[in-house]
Amino acid sequence: MAEESNTTANIVKLSDEEAVKEIVINSIFNLWKTVNNLTRLRPSRRERYRVTIFGSARAQPESFAYAQVKQLAKSLAEMDCDIVTGGGPGLMQAANEGATEGGHSKGSQSIGIRVDLPFEQTVNPFVETGHQHETFFSRLHHFAIASDAFVIVPGGVGTTLEAMMVWQLIQVGHIRKDTPLIFLGKMWDGLLDWSRTQFLQWKLTNPEDTDIPYCVHTPEEAIALLQKDHKNWLKEQSPHTKRSNHEN
User: Fold this and answer.
1) What is the pLDDT of residue 116?
2) Residues paired with residue 111 on neighbouring β-strands, in sequence order
3) Ramachandran bin of 103, using left for φ above 0, alpha for ψ from -120 to 50, beta for the remaining angles
4) How many contiguous H segments (helices) and E segments (strands) does the chain have?
5) Given CA atoms 191, 182, 84, 243 in this order, what sign does their dihedral have?
6) Per-residue confidence (pLDDT) for residue 122, from 0 to 100
7) What are the structural domains of the chain?
8) Which of 27, 176, 199, 244 has its CA 20 to 30 A from that of 94?
9) What is the CA 134 to chain-centroid distance, rounded?
10) pLDDT for residue 169 is more than 70
């Protein structure tokens, strides 16, 4: 009888709106805790180094920027790197196209992480592995946990949002501190100069935080930076390195 009484006392009637609201809110927060806990899991080894390329959806295939981004992704795929983009048109398509051209002999993947948008209904034709999100927030988190390096090519508000999110995650250590964050193109010079000047003038960040991003003007410069990190990544992935670290 006592057990039945306790069960009855825990029942919340739908007519009790405040109690129902509290249960719903608590349940949602508990779901977020579960998701956050699951995203702590990482594979012991990843088959290939992954470079995410963020860029404009508006660039046309005949543009200089499109050709540059396509060549960048092709060169990285030839290094046996996976290429990750937002899966849409423009410079995202350029990166996925370059990845498919350069990765066929190596087995590299051309990956697109999409979000539902009314003006971008389909994934670009060069995405080989696609993922779909309903919100920007879960999509941005997916980029963060799926990537080993980030290249920011010309883009607008969305590209800037993605770049700044990665910058902060590196700053606070949610992404490893030496993760390459590379702004490619002269258009980013002013943003980074402004950030360094204003953040330090008003003491809004530590000096070392402004050194996190690199700014380069050619794909070759970006590739040189990524080659160095890729080499270190390969060492960390080797069983011998893991065994030595464990013994130490």
Assistant:
1) 86
2) 84, 129
3) alpha
4) 9, 7
5) negative
6) 83
7) 50-186+213-236 (3.40.50.450)
8) 176
9) 16
10) yes
